[in-house]
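Researcher: Quick test of sequence recovery. Tokens follow.
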């Protein structure tokens, strides 16, 4: 039919063009490793992204070539978010917390040609540099710590003031890529198209997405190397809001100081970060004069006690669920208008669920006997479909079975859906405790334990058991000055769970190891404590 709409490609450079044109003076603030603050603006980020694109072209980066980054959250990284896709390159963000072996693997697997690295992260590069064949390494920083053979970032940008001639980009070509954290097996590569990033930015900006408009002051604590910083640098640029990029200092006090100094209204990160912030606020409630800050919490389940605790300080949690394979936004837990009248307890229970799918994302739960009913009880594997969900892993056909025959992605998360359509994640398929043929959710036990006033963090793992195959064991870190015995914790859980769910043992420790993305490292815990009920020492330990 004629007379149709224009077929304008949805591409990443548009996002920055808009911010540069309509919000040129809006600030992009970065905290440097030495804690000093650098101020840039969208006009400046745009012109420097063009200079970067020119510099990379001079280095020989061509269409589809991968440019890796190893950097904290700062304006230079934001310039790369746009400068690389703008010239047809593919931005590959590397997670500095991965092992040297995994970093070498992903750089080689992605065939990265150039790396942009923070000078403070050069020691991380040193650990795997000899195992990869990068053509050029460009160093972010003040230019004083550029090792011989590498190029200073400002030097790369310098000769090219003005506009880079942006090629005609296809919305279906690759703009970015990111590897999963690799908690089981090798990390897997996910490739984001320009189109997926633009659509994802629109959905996350929506009021019922993460509600991000130009008036916000956004501080993404989630690192820019983790799923494109949950897409937030793209969304913030699309809407033209002020960005506060916190650099490497992510401890509660440094963050709270930054929120106050820069007037942050919206922040985002994993529950561990917010648990730390809550403890700092509980200890010194009057120290930081915060406005009403919203906290996007994702990456792991937000315990109800965390949501309640932050509410007490006027900080409102927005609970979201997503995955590297989903750019990452999947669901957000906003209350439907019809649920607002519920009693407070039920209201909090809804906010602690993972929520309703973002527009354009579809969800279903598939159990042993097919699609599970929306009854809030029938559990199965959560499957998703949508325009920003991966259709395969980069060069890894062996993982094709993670997609169903009718084109849904199998997330590996166990979930229920209630009659209102809210998704509740009850576990990862591999973290479920299988006790005598029954499933026990480690996540539900953990979240309940973290509601105990003396508990800072708790992780529940499956330990081998001679009769029941597996039984839950809780690994607990108490708050500073807090005290609780195993009996007290068991009694605390007793009223909420079936008897067979209660952990067989409570292990008290000073620290729970976290993955590169800030989640509990359950593989390490299983290794340490998986044999605790059968008296077996950890293999090799
Ligand atoms: P990643 O790809 O590293 O972002 O990890 C994605 C996984 O993190 C998901 O499959 C979930 O298991 C977990 N996850 C993310 N957000 C949440 C959430 N809000 N609640 C529970 N689990 C979550």
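Model:
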């Amino acid at each position: 039919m004629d007379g149709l709409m224009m077929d304008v490609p949805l591409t990443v450079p548009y996002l920055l063009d808009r911010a540069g044109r309509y919000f040129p003076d809006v600030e992009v603030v970065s905290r440097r490793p030495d804690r000093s603050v650098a101020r840039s603006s969208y006009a400046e980020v745009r012109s420097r992204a063009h200079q970067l694109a020119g510099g990379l072209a001079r280095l020989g980066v061509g269409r589809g070539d991968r440019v890796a980054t190893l950097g904290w959250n700062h304006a230079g990284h934001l310039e790369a978010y746009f400068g690389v896709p703008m010239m047809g390159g593919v931005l590959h963000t590397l997670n500095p917390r991965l092992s040297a072996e995994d970093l070498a693997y992903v750089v080689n697997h992605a065939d990265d040609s150039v790396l942009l690295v923070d000078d403070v992260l050069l020691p991380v590069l040193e650990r795997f540099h000899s195992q990869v064949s990068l053509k050029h390494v460009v160093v972010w920083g003040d230019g004083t710590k550029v090792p011989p053979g590498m190029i200073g970032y400002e030097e790369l940008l310098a000769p090219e003031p003005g506009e880079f001639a942006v090629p005609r980009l296809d919305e279906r070509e690759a703009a970015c890529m990111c590897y999963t954290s690799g908690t089981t097996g090798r990390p897997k590569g996910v490739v984001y198209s320009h189109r997926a990033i633009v659509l994802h930015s629109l959905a996350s900006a929506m009021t019922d997405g993460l509600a991000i408009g130009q008036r916000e002051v956004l501080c993404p604590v989630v690192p820019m190397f983790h799923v494109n910083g949950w897409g937030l640098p793209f969304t913030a640029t699309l809407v033209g809001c002020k960005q506060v990029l916190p650099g490497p200092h992510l401890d509660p006090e440094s963050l709270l100081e930054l929120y106050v100094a820069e007037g942050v209204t919206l922040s985002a990160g994993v529950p561990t970060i917010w648990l730390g912030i809550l403890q700092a606020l509980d200890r010194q409630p009057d120290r930081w004069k915060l406005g009403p800050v919203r906290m996007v919490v994702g990456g792991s389940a937000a315990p109800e006690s965390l949501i309640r605790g932050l509410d007490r300080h006027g900080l409102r949690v927005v609970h979201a669920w997503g995955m590297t394979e989903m750019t990452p936004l999947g669901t957000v837990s906003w209350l439907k208008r019809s649920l607002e009248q519920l009693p407070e307890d039920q209201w909090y229970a809804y906010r602690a669920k993972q929520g309703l799918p973002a527009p354009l994302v579809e969800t279903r739960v598939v159990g042993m006997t097919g699609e599970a009913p929306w009854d809030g009880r029938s559990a199965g594997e959560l499957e998703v479909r949508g325009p920003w969900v991966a259709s395969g892993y980069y060069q890894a056909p062996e993982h094709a079975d993670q997609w169903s025959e009718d084109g849904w992605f199998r997330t590996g998360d166990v979930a229920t859906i209630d009659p209102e359509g809210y998704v509740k994640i009850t576990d990862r398929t591999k973290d479920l405790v299988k006790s005598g043929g029954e499933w026990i959710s480690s996540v539900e036990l953990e979240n309940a334990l973290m509601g105990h006033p003396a508990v800072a963090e708790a992780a529940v793992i499956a330990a081998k058991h001679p009769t029941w195959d597996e039984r839950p064991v809780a690994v607990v870190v108490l708050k500073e000055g807090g005290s609780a015995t195993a009996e007290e914790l068991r009694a605390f859980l007793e009223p909420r769970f079936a008897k067979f769910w209660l952990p067989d043992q409570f292990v008290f420790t000073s620290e729970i190891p976290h993955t590169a993305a800030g989640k509990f490292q359950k593989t390490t815990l299983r290794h340490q404590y998986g044999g605790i009920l059968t008296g077996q020492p950890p293999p090799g330990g």
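The mean pLDDT is 95.
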